[in-house]
Each structure stands twice: as C-alpha cells, then as structure tokens.
Amino acid sequence: MNGKWLYSLIIIGLLTTAACSNQEPAAETGSEVKKVVLATVKQEQAVKVTELSGTLAPLEEALVSFEVAGRITELTKNEGDTVKAGDVLARLDGSDYSLQVAAASATVQQTGATLAKVNNGAREQEITQARLLVEKATVAYNKAQDDFKRIERLYQEKAISQSEYENAQNYLTVAEKDLQNAQQAFSLVTQGARAEDKELTQASYKQAVVTQEIAASSLAKTQLRAPIDGTIIAKLTTEGSLVGIGSPVYRVGDIRTLKVVLPVPDREIFAWREGETITLDLYGQKRDAKVVKIYPAANQGTGTIGVEVQVANERKDWFAGQVVKAIKTVEGKTGLYIPVEAVISRGQGEAHVFVNQGGKAVKTAVTIGEINNNRLEITSGLKEGDQLVVKGVDRLFDGDPIEAAGGQPQ
C-alpha cells in the first residue's frame, strides 16, 4: 500500500494529535504524571473482514409461455404455489387445433388407402375381367381381319364399292386398337403400378402423417406445463386473455436454494475460493453460504469480478429480490499491529509513537506497513514486548512521566 496514502489517512483521523506533537517538550522536573492506557506490543495475524452486498435470486428460474397462440381458458396456479416439472399451469381454447387434427387424420387415411392399393395390386376379379376383355377384343379383331380379307377380294373384283371397302378397312383398324388397349390394361393389372407411381404415392402418405403429427403437437401445446420444479413467483396474465407465441404467462423459480452474485473487487479476488463457506446476513439473520462459481472476467465498468454464492432456503423464508450482506473473514500475514490512534504523523512520511520506558513516555519513530481494520502494521521502530501508549498520546511530550490507568498495561 502506498505510504503517502496511509499517512494521509492518519492525518485526517488524528489532526488534533498531530498538532499537539508540534509543541515544545515540557520541562521534566516537577511535571505532572499523566494517566495513559498501555498495551504490550506482540505478534498477531492480520484479519480483514470484507462486507459485500448482493440481491437474492432463485437458483433456477424460467419465464413460461405458450408455443401456440390462442385465448386462455384456464390458469390453474397462483403466486406461491409449488409445482413439479410437467404440471399443467394453463390451457388455451383448443377447438381450432382439434379440427386440424381431425382433418389431418382423414388425409392420412385417404393416402394410406391409396398407397395400399398401389402396393397390393389388382384383385383377382379385376385380373379376370381384364383377361376377358383381351379375349373379346381378340375375337373381334380376328373377325374384322377375316371380313376385311373377304371385302378386299370383292373390291379387287369390283364387286363392291370403294366406300364399303374403306368401311371394312376402318373397322379392322378400330378392332386392332381395341385389342391393343385391352392388352395394355391387362398388363397394368397383372404387373402393378410403376416404381415412380409407388414412390409418389408413398411420399404423399408420409407428408400426410407429418401434417397429422404437427397438428397433434400444436393441440398438445394448448396446455402449458411447468418446465422445472419450483414455486410460482408471478402470474403475468389473466383468464380470457389472447396471448401470442412467447407471451409470458408465469414466472417459475426454484427458491429452495437461493443464489447471489457478489461484486468482489478484482484486487481481492485472490482470497476467494470455490467451495469455501461464507456468511450471509439478512436483517441480522445469518446463514452459511457456499461459493459455487467465480466468473472468468472482470466487469470493465466497475472493476469487480462476480462470485456466485448459494444458500439453502428450505423454509422459503428468504425471498428473491431481497438484498443480503456477505461477510468474509480473510486472514493476512503475521506482524506487529497497533491501533491507528497510537500513531502520530506529521504528514511528511514521518510517524512516531510513545513507548513506556521506566515510567516515562519515550517518543519513538516507526515505519508503517499495511492498514487493516483500523490497525497499522509496524515494520520497524517497535519490537515485541514493548509497552506502547495506545490512549492519551495526544497529551504527551517526549519524556513526560506516565502511569498506566488501572495500574497495569493491557
């Protein structure tokens, strides 16, 4: 710690004392014996108590909202109610979503029947019918062919007109086309649908199934369920309200354990460890809390590092949003520590104390180290066992006769 800064602190607190120290020493002969408080200088370990404030928050918290839009028909929970993950918290009017499910189910049935027909092929009756049509067309074609041969001979012999010849020719052509159509129909019935037709029908069926699943999922989402175990912290809407996707309905939090993020100055973060126990104070009520996380970066605006602390709250008698004070005791190095009021400083880097030597106050220059809880570390000028004047120094001059108040040094 900067020495000048320490000395400035001492000057502010001990201005009167410093003024007295500038006076000339009184004559020793016949001087009044002054009552003072003495203390024995000894080695001790520095202890620093750090106090920080933070706001309590639920260990886990969620804003719960619908994934579909609609009108709220029921809100089943109120503030303070305990819920389990999966509990129904609210419901929307699901009429429209139910109709969508019904329509999608009908489409699945229709496309499923078509797919089955394509995959299974024609029935035996349809195959028999197609075969008979081929036979009938074959008979008709053979007859038309015989008739055409006979008409053709008569036409060559000029026994019939050209018109009758052309009619016979056309009849043969039609009979041939009928036979080809019957044969193709019979082939389709016996061989089944083409591969691409089967794939198309199967794709239509899968799409219908997906649409049905989406409709069923949307219907299920008209019931709002708790995502975590916890307590209803706030109800954010009312029955009958129209809500959109993502509109908050409840705030749910786990308050059986609370957490607080403490803003620890970065120069002190070395003294904090994950897993250690500290004390939290809420209006005089103290509880042990555990350090669970030290954040990896400092806040550039405040120069602090977040330290997350968790505290048990099974009775739920501490509340989210309350401000608690964190108390942490840090043990420092061992040295000679004396009260601040025992030191007199001129503000120029010079400091002294009064030591009892044979019943006289002896002015002794000292060097100051760290300041800790209103006690100063003395790095030179004193030794363990010295009898130090800790009260009454403002009335002393070098060489004054002194006597311990109460007769014995502390």
TrEMBL record:
* Keyword set includes Signal: yes
Alphabetic keyword roster: Coiled coil, Signal
Domain YknX-like C-terminal permuted SH3-like residue range list: 336-403
InterPro entries annotated for this entry? HH_YbhG-like (IPR059052), RND_pump_MFP (IPR006143), YknX-like_C (IPR058637)
Q: Any coiled-coil ranges, and where?
A: 134-185
Task: List the GO molecular function terms.
Answer: efflux transmembrane transporter activity
Q: Where is the YbhG-like alpha-helical hairpin domain?
A: 92-210
Q: Which domain of life is it from?
A: Bacteria
Q: Which residues form the signal peptide?
A: 1-26
Q: Which GO terms describe its cellular component?
A: efflux pump complex
Family, per entry: Belongs to the membrane fusion protein (MFP) (TC 8.A.1) family.
> Can you name this protein?
Efflux RND transporter periplasmic adaptor subunit
The taxonomy runs:
Bacteria, Bacillati, Bacillota, Bacilli, Bacillales
